[in-house]
Amino acid sequence: MTIAITRDRCVRRAMEAAEAALARNPAATPTLSDLAEASGVSPRTLQRRFACVLGRSPHSIVRQLRLAAARQSLRTGQATSVIDAALRHGFEHPGHFAAAYARAFGEAPSATLRTTRHERPASPAAPPSLQIVLRPLRAATPDDAARALGSG
């Protein structure tokens, strides 16, 4: 997600802290207290600054960052399913994830995944290496027949 770099130092520090936490652990959900501490202000001041500068809450910005990371995972093939993307990025309820994703990006996560699969078809799996050795057949003898019948 691209949020314009702001001149507001506490908002910028909070955003950097959120992005760093998500880079370390994509399922992280940095709390308001964590972000406020990183930016050097009280939680309430941080909420006010986010509302004033970005028109949104810190929680909604962190959620948007996580959704954008999930979208990237679906687009690059890092996530092989919608549930994989949701869980990888800290969304425990796939239905809520899908609804939030659709609101944010205008399409269902399954549509993103389907588009990605069509744009980048999977390379066909190489057939397993199988070595077949053909040997010439020799003519059967009466002894071979007796051996096969167990009487020899």
Automatic annotation (TrEMBL):
It comes from the Bacteria. Residues 12-115 form the HTH araC/xylS-type domain. Pfam families: HTH_18. InterPro entries: Homeodomain-like_sf (IPR009057), HTH_AraC (IPR018060), HTH_AraC-typ_CS (IPR018062), PchR_regulatory_protein (IPR053142). Keywords: DNA-binding, Transcription, Transcription regulation. This is Helix-turn-helix transcriptional regulator.
